[in-house]
Design goal:
- It is a single chain.
- By secondary structure, the chain is α/β, with parallel strands linked by helices.
- The chain has three domains: about 35-120, Orthogonal Bundle (Arc Repressor Mutant, subunit A); about 125-190 and about 300-345, D-Maltodextrin-Binding Protein, domain 2, CATH 3.40.190; about 195-295 and about 345-365, 3-Layer(aba) Sandwich (D-Maltodextrin-Binding Protein, domain 2), CATH 3.40.190.
- About 40% of the residues lie in helices and about 20% in strands.
- The strands form two sheets. Strands 3, 4, 5, 6, 7, 8, 9, 10 and 11 form a nine-stranded mixed sheet that branches. Strands 1-2 form a two-stranded antiparallel sheet.
- α2 crosses α5 (about 95-120).
- It is elongated.
Length: about 375
């Protein structure tokens, strides 16, 4: 019986001897830890903020407090982590090795606290969703409407973004889900859909005045408007095809449309975003081989999404809205390199099929197909 009168349902093991006899090492067998997470956090701040002054400002601590903690950390480890030259501190080789390892330690600690918060809240109070600007709006609204009906108590923090911002949000634990062109390293994702891109221009653009199939050399000296804020605005194969075109980089979709309407350039744009303009003959698809290209979008999970039932539910709804019901693979199964290569092969095969069309058929490509499915399944 314990001093409190309660009996333990198991036998206590004294020291680490029992664990060693069992051939297993237990983390709590270590008698004492000489360092703590707060010290490592200060070291990260000193390196990342370029010195003790910057670290103090970022952590809202005095420079002397940080200096003392780092000195104590070095003393406890028995290794010099920093070397002082003049008024600047530089990390040593041993310090760099330990710094890189300790970043994982801090990251795991943050994730552990986030997990505890998620488990405490159950469904949680909100889901943070980052969405690529070229994900079809009709699909997004359909998914959000369905999710709102199923989970009215959960809010969705929606942010349209480009690939760089979405990856940063995932890595900083800010995003639970993200729809992006590529799966960032260390994250889990699944293929969601392929977005169809078409090479378009104003009907009175000089390329249409050729009155024949547009060849690669016809693009020499022509201006191409490119959405610089969206890296997937032009597929890689399209970039290779138009490598000799002059580029006007713009950040807004409306700016790109304005350039096209003024007959100043041609450009690669998602078909679903210009379908109305194609139907009204305000834009036309260029009659050339490879005028239709495809770029993938993936649904990527934040590190803590698997513990958030609301996030997994929203992921299922997004898959269904994108025409992939039942596509939600295990969250422990990342997109493999082999799977990505298969996607690339599929897209290239589709592009080769487009290039086999006859010149006469290519003249009106896009106008005759406005009513067909906007997105290749």
């Amino acid at each position: 019986m314990s001093s409190s009168g309660r009996e333990f349902p198991f036998k206590r093991a004294s020291g680490s001897r029992v664990g060693n006899e069992m051939g297993a090492y237990r983390l709590y067998d270590q008698k004492s830890l000489h360092i703590n997470l707060r010290q490592w956090r200060m070291l990260h701040a000193v390196i990342d903020c370029n010195g003790f002054t910057g670290a103090g400002q970022h952590l809202h601590l005095s420079q002397s407090a940080i200096s003392y903690s780092i000195a104590k950390l070095q003393e406890q480890l028995g290794l010099p982590l920093l070397k002082i030259e003049g008024r600047k501190a530089f990390i040593t080789e041993d310090g760099r090795i330990l710094l890189d390892r300790s970043r994982n330690l801090i990251r795991e600690a943050i994730e552990l606290e986030l997990l505890a918060e998620s488990l405490r809240n159950g469904w949680g109070t909100r889901v943070h969703l980052e969405v690529d600007r070229n994900f079809p709006n009709v699909m997004l609204m359909s998914a959000l409407r369905q999710f709102q009906a199923d989970s009215s108590q959960v809010g969705v923090a929606l942010q349209e973004s480009d690939a760089t911002r979405a990856e940063e949000a995932l890595c900083d634990h800010g995003a639970d889900l993200a729809i992006v062109s590529d799966v960032p390293p260390g994250h889990t994702g699944l293929p969601l859909m392929n977005v169809e891109y078409v090479s378009v221009a104003h009907p009175e653009h000089p390329l249409f005045k050729l009155q024949r199939h547009v060849r690669s050399e016809d693009l020499d000296g022509q201006v191409e408007v490119v959405l610089s804020s969206s890296p997937m605005a032009r597929p890689e194969s399209a970039r290779r095809l138009n490598s000799r075109a002059l580029a006007w980089n713009v950040s807004e979709f409306d700016t790109a449309l304005g350039v096209l309407r003024e007959r100043l350039a041609y450009g690669w744009l998602p078909r679903h975003r210009v379908s109305g303009l194609l139907a009204d003959n305000q834009l036309r698809v260029l009659p050339m081989h490879g005028a239709v290209q495809y770029a993938p979008l993936h649904l990527v999970y934040g590190r803590m999404a698997r513990f958030n039932r609301a996030a997994t539910r929203l992921a299922d709804v997004l898959c269904a809205a994108s025409g992939r019901p039942g596509a939600a693979m295990s969250l422990d199964e990342p997109v493999s390199e082999e799977r990505r290569q298969d996607e690339i092969v599929e897209r290239e095969e589709g592009e080769r099929e487009d290039m086999d069309c006859e010149d006469a058929d290519c003249e009106d490509v896009g106008r005759d197909e406005v009513d067909r499915a906007l997105i290749r399944p």
